[in-house]
Specification:
single chain; alpha/beta; Immunoglobulin-like; five-stranded mixed β-sheet
């Protein structure tokens, strides 16, 4: 009986040790996805998209694909500013975009024809 209890405790302890690294490896990141349009709704390929974490100023840049879509995968949760620019269009900007762990946040922007900077504050 005593030997059986010790065996069960050993198995339980071994299971706890094996499970711990797996629990520590859980994702604590998120994604920001979006699409860039020009008025009246056509997509803009090859637009430069910048994602900036507002508290730290750390930023990353992507280019939209042929459908105007972009993605910033595996970013830390936080509050971000998303901006997009393309030659011949006004820069579009969206601040205070909240990114929550283990989610995908949409950040669609519309670029208007022109050369001046345009900001849209949420």
């Amino acid at each position: 009986m005593k030997h059986r209890v010790l065996l069960q405790l050993s198995l339980l302890f071994s299971l706890a040790l094996v499970s711990t690294p797996r629990a520590l490896a859980l994702a604590v990141s998120a994604n920001v996805v979006g699409r860039h349009y020009r008025y009246p709704g056509a997509s803009i390929p090859d637009a430069k998209v910048t994602l900036t974490e507002q508290a730290t100023g750390v930023s990353a840049t992507r280019t939209t694909n042929s459908s105007g879509n972009f993605e910033f995968p595996n970013i830390p949760p936080g509050t971000y500013t998303v901006s997009a620019e393309h030659v011949g269009f006004q820069t579009a900007k969206s601040s205070n975009t909240s990114v929550i762990v283990n989610t995908s946040t949409r950040a669609d922007l519309t670029l208007s024809v022109g050369s001046e900077t345009h900001s849209r504050w949420k």
